[in-house]
Write a structure and sequence with these properties.
By secondary structure, the chain is of the alpha/beta class. It contains 14 helices and 24 strands. The protein has a 4-stranded mixed beta sheet. The termini are close together. The site of uridine-diphosphate-2(N-acetylglucosaminyl) butyric acid has 24 residues, from helix 1, helix 5, helix 6 and helix 12.
Length: about 425
């Protein structure tokens, strides 16, 4: 397994191009199961999670072809040859559970492994199942698999989520596109990923209104057709790379970045003393290298501060002047980066979902490792301004969600290399 070594090397300057969004692309890929005509996705990020889902889709009979060096993906689900998503594949990637809605909508039946918990929390799927039951599916659980059946098709219904679930909303939307009649989803996710999925489904012939609001209405149609859709920019990759010059100083332009994707995050970053400007090609982040100012952060569903940027913001706040408070409200176990940052000299106290970070003047490089994607990248960011060398193990987490991270950060002057362990 590879390691990444980062050496604190002063300010970063230049530009980084933001890739297509991992979490959006995964859900767009599942939408291909809804039609017997090809779905072409452009701006596809080259990530291991995308490869894992491709394998699962192939096991269901969907052909997946990569063009243009992997940046374009053509998914052709002419005939579904298998309605069972095996544990071996689903356990590697929770987003795989989102094949359930499309499969049952198109085939009237599907069996999908329960994904199990993961490092950041229990991550149940009860709300995905509640939504499908509302649409008329019969659900049984057996030997770790969910069997979902609707032999006469799904029927539109009112689905009200007790709290926001991104994956649950998306499974419900895809299933409802082919249901008979109208579905109304209340307390729906407003995430840009969900909006982009609706845009793609609409291009495929679905009738959806209200995407981006907390009430989404779907008029079922008989069939969906092929389409071509460009994957939206990855707001989490964007936010991650915006923090790099905030930590190390310098000026970095994020090509393809959009403020509306990370508005609340931008306001918080600006409150630390960083300057963010809109440019013709994206967003520019400038910082003179002075210590940042402490801030308080609470994670929330979109449009609030994203949980997927909490670890990276914590890394920045470790050397801020003053005491910052972070409150994680989405996942119950998402501070696993804190003990590793403490190994680098940070002063962090975690109590349940609350973390108090008292800024120190400098972090020191150390050997660290992380147990999830965003925690891993926060350690790389911390290493950018630490004294000496930071070695981050278990790099496969990073490869799940950051395309060519050493090239992108190296391109703006970071001293970063990948070495075999
Ligand atoms: N939840 C339930 N029951 C459900 C569904 C969710 O209790 O049936 C709970 C979860 O355990 C969690 C909360 O609801 O505590 C919110 O979960 P949500 O369903 O919104 O998350 P998700 O769809 O599983 C996606 C992203 C995550 C991101 C979250 C929140 C994908 C593939 N994953 O997960 O991304 O953190 O939304 O924005 O879209 C990442 O990229 O590193 C990542 C973890």
């Amino acid at each position: 397994m590879d390691k990444i070594i980062v050496t604190g090397n002063g300010p970063l300057n230049g530009e980084i191009t933001i890739s297509g969004a991992k979490n959006t692309c995964l859900k767009l890929m599942t939408a291909a199961l809804l039609s017997d005509e090809p779905l072409t996705l452009t701006n596809v990020p080259r990530l291991s999670d995308i490869g894992t889902l491709s394998e699962l889709l192939e096991s269901l009979g969907c052909e997946v072809a990569l063009l243009n060096g992997g940046n374009v993906m053509v998914l052709s689900a002419g005939t579904i040859t298998n309605r069972k998503a095996e544990y071996e594949m689903v356990r590697k990637l929770r987003a795989s559970f989102n094949v359930l809605g499309p499969l049952v909508a198109r085939e009237g039946e599907a069996t999908v492994s329960l994904p199990g918990g993961c490092a950041i929390g229990a991550r149940k799927v009860d709300l995905h199942l509640m939504a499908l039951e509302k649409l008329g599916a019969t659900i049984t659980l057996d030997e770790g698999y969910v069997h979902c059946s609707a032999p006469n098709g799904l029927t539109g219904a009112v689905i009200e989520f007790p709290f926001v679930t991104v994956g649950g909303t998306e499974n419900a939307i895809t299933a409802a596109t082919l249901a008979k009649g109208t579905t109304v989803i209340k307390n729906a996710a407003r995430e840009p990923d969900t909006v982009d999925l609706c845009k793609c489904l609409t291009a495929m012939g679905a009738k959806i209104t209200g995407a981006g609001t907390s009430e989404i209405t779907i008029e079922g149609v008989d069939r969906l057709h092929g389409a071509t859709h460009e994957v939206i920019a990855d707001r989490i990759e964007l936010g991650t790379f915006m923090i790099a010059p905030a930590i190390a100083g310098g000026e970095v332009e994020l090509i393809g970045g959009r403020r509306d994707l990370v508005d609340v995050f931008c306001k918080k970053l600006e409150a630390t003393g960083v300057v963010i400007t809109d440019t013709k090609r994206g967003l520019k982040v400038s910082h003179n290298g002075d210590r940042l100012q402490a801030i308080d952060v609470e994670t929330e569903p979109f449009p609030g501060f994203p949980t997927d940027l909490q670890a990276q913001m914590m890394a920045a706040l470790c050397t801020a002047e003053g005491t910052s408070k972070l409150h994680e409200t989405i996942f119950e176990n998402r501070f696993m980066h804190a003990p590793e940052l403490i190994r680098m000299g940070a002063n962090i106290d975690v109590q349940g979902g609350h973390a108090t970070v008292t800024g120190v003047s400098k972090l020191k490089g150390a050997q660290v490792m992380a147990t999830d994607l965003r925690a891993s990248v926060s350690l790389i960011l911390a290493g950018l301004a630490a004294e000496g060398e930071t070695t981050v193990g278990r790099v496969y987490h990073l490869d799940r969600g950051y395309e060519r991270i050493e090239e992108k950060l190296g391109g703006v002057g970071a001293l970063i290399k990948r070495v075999p362990e």
